[in-house]
Design a protein that fits this description.
Blueprint: E1 10-11, E2 16-17, H1 45-52, H2 55-61, H3 78-85, H4 97-114, H5 170-180, H6 195-207, H7 216-221, H8 228-232, H9 239-251, H10 258-274
Helix pairs in contact: 3-6, 4-10, 5-6, 9-10
The chain binds 2-acetamido-2-deoxy-beta-D-glucopyranose (NAG).
Length: 292
């Protein structure tokens, strides 16, 4: 049975911004524990992402992440990003060069929106301020869904937004920890304390399909096959569908949603820096959200 959705309001420093992440609790794929650090050609998996996003480019993308004003300053460094990516060698590996760049741009754009410190007149523009936050400010609750008996909350623990994707709720911390080898229910704090774990939770979310939703990875690399229901709902591949997967219930099927524009703004900037076009279906205004 599909479970509901959740709210994750994040109050950002410069712009009060309601950001919400919804996910279905149904069909959790149990990702393996093993590392697969060779791709099909025997290449070092780490090098695939490193060859797309160089250290210099990473610094240009996240220009202000280490500013003193950013609560996450010093947290999200390049080395740690690559170490986490090595756990998911298919990330940035599938498809032709343009596809691989576009997937990486899409992932970095989505985590940038989730952690943005930007505002309209910010230095270098609003889209130079991704990865500024690592933990939700003033969480309104401990995000414990007590009805999730599979992933019971540990008393005293809070499952508010942490890390690049702002992982939230016990029913996400539990399976993320199981897949990645940390105690998500007993030690959710590690997601905002260990940057490698933090990045891995974001990549786990990106790479893992949770029915009825495909993975964002499959969508961006052309492996997504819409069902009849998806076609009827206009859920066609493109960056907009990753927004629908992440937060469609709030942001999709309507126009004029500022969060959608913020996500697209980051995506356009990163695609430009990577020298790749943004592809089709940038927004999700004409898509129905997933029902859960
Ligand atoms: C990046 O972060 C890791 C983990 O916190 C740390 O061990 C490493 O020294 C950092 N590297 C740089 C270049 O700051």
């Amino acid at each position: 049975m599909a479970r509901l959705l959740f709210l994750r309001p994040v109050l950002l420093a410069a712009a009060a911004c309601l950001s919400v992440w919804m996910i279905s609790n149904a069909g959790v794929a149990e990702a393996g524990f093993g590392y697969h650090c060779d791709d099909d050609n025997g290449n070092d998996c780490k090098s695939r992402v490193a060859s797309i996003v160089t250290e210099k480019l990473y610094g240009d993308m996240f220009k202000h992440k280490d500013d003193a004003a950013c609560p996450a300053h010093g947290f999200y460094n390049y080395t740690t990003f690559l170490r986490a990516a090595a756990r998911f060698p298919e990330f940035g590996r599938d498809g032709d060069a343009a596809t691989r760049k576009r997937e990486v741009a899409a992932f970095l754009a989505q985590i940038s929106h989730e952690t943005t410190g930007g505002w309209a007149t910010a230095p270098d523009g609003p889209y130079a301020w991704g990865l500024c936050f690592k933990e939700e400010i003033s969480p309104p609750s401990n995000y414990c869904d007590a009805s999730s008996t599979r992933w019971p909350c540990v008393p005293g623990k809070s499952y508010h937004g942490r890390g690049p994707i702002q992982l939230s709720w016990n029913f996400n911390y539990g399976p993320a920890g199981q897949a990645l080898g940390f105690d998500g229910l007993g030690n959710p704090e590690v997601v905002a304390a260990d940057p490698e774990v933090a990045f891995k939770t974001a990549l786990w979310f990106w790479m893992t399909p949770r029915a009825p939703k495909p993975s964002c990875h499959d969508v961006m690399v052309g492996r997504y096959r819409p069902t009849d229901a998806d076609v009827a709902a206009n859920r066609m591949a493109g960056f907009g569908l990753t927004t629908n997967i992440i937060n469609g219930g709030i942001e999709c099927g309507k126009t004029g949603v500022p969060q959608v524009d913020d996500r697209i703004g980051f995506f356009r900037r990163y695609c430009e820096l990577l020298g790749v076009d943004v592809g089709p279906n940038l927004d999700c205004a004409q898509q129905q959200p997933y029902s859960s």
